[in-house]
Records
---
Amino acid sequence: MTLTVDVSHRQGDFTLEVRFESEGNLTALFGRSGSGKTTLVNIVAGLIRPVRGRVALGDLVLLDSERGIFVPPHRRRIGYVFQEGRLFPHLSVRQNLLYGRWFAPSGERREALDTVIDLLGIASLLERRPGSLSGGEKQRVAIGRALLASPRLLLMDEPLASLDEGRKGEILPYIERLRDQMRIPILYVSHAVGEVARLASTLVLLNEGRVAAAGPTADIMGRLDLFPMTGRAEAGAVLETRIEAHEADYGLTLLRSAAGMIRVPRIDMEAGTPVRVRIRARDVMLALERPSGISALNILEATVAELRPGKGPIVDIRLDCAGTPLLARVTRRSVETLGLRPGLALYAVVKSVAFERRSIAAGTEAGGEAGGEAADL
Ligand SMILES: Nc1ncnc2c1ncn2[C@@H]1O[C@H](COP(=O)(O)OP(=O)(O)OP(=O)(O)O)[C@@H](O)[C@H]1O
């Protein structure tokens, strides 16, 4: 279902001027603090009425200032998951979930309680009170409560921001299942690049209240000009791959991608499963000749597409690996020594151990039917 947003708004000194369309199952709004993400989400939810604009979900118009249409928030049937779960502390998990279902119009309670409990793995928590749950468990219950209201759209505003790394890793697979198995579009706010790279089918990059770029996640992540906005330190390319085979003796998995075969630590999923991997620019080495006698297992043929000097000694490089962008970060000295320039053919070298669990995830199919668990390395 297409989400169309075209709005203008002013609050204090801040101007929001945003326009995008997304057909992805999970659209991430990504940008620095103060770029306007929460304002935009609140406009979509109907909590803020913008000066001008249009918001539509498929054929359903939620806002159209020209035609005088403004569907009030409680009529939009939009689920909202906040940074902290906001569960009712005096109700059990089961009661919290049933409270969510109360908002679903009768006859449209399509998300059966058991399905949601199973999807989010919260069966063992049902009789507990929120006070005794971990942060990750609370968020899973909050997502469940939102789902049971049969929303047309799910808004998730930094749902993992209050969790530590371990808890984030615990909840990400559930969000992936939600994305792949439920037919509810998700608008997901984050300023964590790893999270967005893993989850988003479409990425909308906001900068100072405007759309700096919007499109498929891999395309946006592969653009050097956006590094200042996506964050230089964590920058990396996203590759869509499929499991080719497992090398049981070595505990490795072989992935097929347009850029070539890639070996990563074992992923417990069947051959053929789509898997998305993120290769950080700082984990990629370059060689003019095919290296031999080297421990790194991944050697990909590439052509230099673009060089962009960063601060100090660093140069960011976009490579073209059979049409797929890969990013590398080397020193200015290496650029000179190797004579790196656009058009030069070379080899990109990536260690298998550079692929940590958090940089690998079950990928999304175009139709959103992928399913599968996140890689369990
Ligand atoms: N009620 C308000 N009145 C005036 N200015 C506001 C109001 N609410 C937000 N702003 C300003 O609007 C801008 C965008 O804020 P917003 O919360 O949408 O950003 P954000 O991208 O969600 O940031 P963060 O990641 O920190 O949550 C900020 O400059 C903020 O100070």
Note: The chain has two domains: 3-228, 273-362.
---
Amino acid sequence: MSNLMTGGQMRTHEQAVIGGGSVTGLALMQRAGQGVFDAISQAFPELSDACGRRALILCGPGNNGGDGFVVAHLLAAAGWAVDVALLGEAGHLPPDAAANHARWVGTGAKRRDVLSLDQVVPLIAAQGAPDLVVDAVFGTGLRRGLSADVVEALRVSIEAARHSVAVDILSGLCADSGKWLGQAADLTVDLTVTFHTAKPGHYLAAGGRATRRLVIVDIGLPVQSARIEDAELIDAPAYSGEVARKDPASHKYGSGHALVLSGGPGRTGAARLAARAALRIGAGLVTIAVPPGAQQEVACQITAIMLTRVADSEALGVVLEDKRYSALCLGPGLGVGERTRSLVSEALSAGRSVVLDADALTSFADDPMSLFEQVRGADVVLTPHGGEFARLFPDLAEQLRAVAETGPAVSKIDVVRAAAARAGCTVLLKGADTVIAAPDGRVRVHAACRERAAPWLATAGAGDVLAGFVTGLMARGLEPLEAASHATWLHVECARAFGPGLIAEDLPEALPGVLKALL
Ligand SMILES: NC(=O)C1=CN([C@@H]2O[C@H](COP(=O)(O)OP(=O)(O)OC[C@H]3O[C@@H](n4cnc5c(N)ncnc54)[C@H](OP(=O)(O)O)[C@@H]3O)[C@@H](O)[C@H]2O)[C@@H](O)CC1
Ligand SMILES: [K+]
């Protein structure tokens, strides 16, 4: 896993390193621009012959613009014809950006013109499409939405150019949240080149869709060891290797016994999906607890999975006298209401690992605090989708939903971290960008975008399978944050392994192949 640093964390780190005297801001800017130039060469080998190539570099009023001037200089040195446009007054640029602006403009007979940003659209109309456009208008210093003329210049250049590149992050996107500040510009570039670490905004919200490729350039800043305030990205190509390995000598009870509670007749499919997922991911035994009326329906559709009758919370208490049940899953298809609330309370009082999903969450919509009082400090994972999250944490959901006029905007990381602290247990908020937070502040992000895109995962029952994966891993003894993280990664991996046509039943069946590939 790697760290995701916010704009503020990057600034603090950069200032500390510069303050320590080992490097100057100007040197970092040179490395950043060189990194962008190198990444362009690697990503677009068809541009290696600079002869006759035209680039348009859009520079902003801060250090992101300074990086743009470095890129302009390197492209021109390589033989490109380069036009540079600047938003704002050159006299107001910060020192390092001003130095690179001055170097670009040059002196004497070799002086170059810098256009203003409002000359960009007429330039493209006159000259035709450039081979390359570089967006160096705003990076981590974006504080408010883009004005209409900036959006227009960006849109026309990005849509016209054969290749488009954003320096650090596409202008208009908040680096901390991935949200568009102000009105959404909904632009996409071919490549984004960022520095030192990726930023949350490259993965969250619109940020996951705003670039087709992301390259992280090492600019020589020292790597910091992970701190609790850093969000970690679940990104390793073989993340769940340790999950794939099972102790060959282990007894089936050594891998835990998962209990999945089912809804009544006609509503048992979700629990069966979760149970199958728990078994496939390595729980030694899995039992479905069914209300008596659904016993036949479940019995005729299971083989390795066992069944026990549980009419109510009292019956659940009796079942849980068997201490070998190590993890429980409540929610998929369970029904909303008092019966589910009492089953949840019984499960939580038994002191096992518990996954609460779907109806088990919605059942507490009227009084979320009564749920939080019961889960606080226990090995519990809540796995809401956006709607369920809004029922339990309406104020946080509202903050996340609100249009952000100023930056940095409230991010999914911020709200899930706050939710986990409030609930006192691990919270996994599902989505194309999944954020998992532990109550101690640790946060993991997984985004099914770019090389991990899994559009087929938006299918009925996929969430039940995810709940089953988390349950199975907790049954095996993984702590909540680890179980939730591995389950999330493997869930996407299964969808990607199966591909188009995926339905939820296919996810547990794709898992053996995925695990085998990890060994
Ligand atoms: N940190 C590092 O380690 C390194 C950082 N590097 C580079 O520096 C970049 C960060 O630079 P940065 O801090 O100068 O911010 P940046 O995004 O250029 O813009 C700030 C300017 O924009 C203005 N402004 C903001 N929003 C606006 C709006 N909507 N419309 C109009 N104006 C707006 C804002 O004005 P103000 O809000 O103060 O009025 C201010 O003038 C970073 O992304 C990376 O590329 C690398 O060189 C090497 C290592
Ligand atoms: K940019």
Note: Residues 25-43 form the longest helix (19 residues).
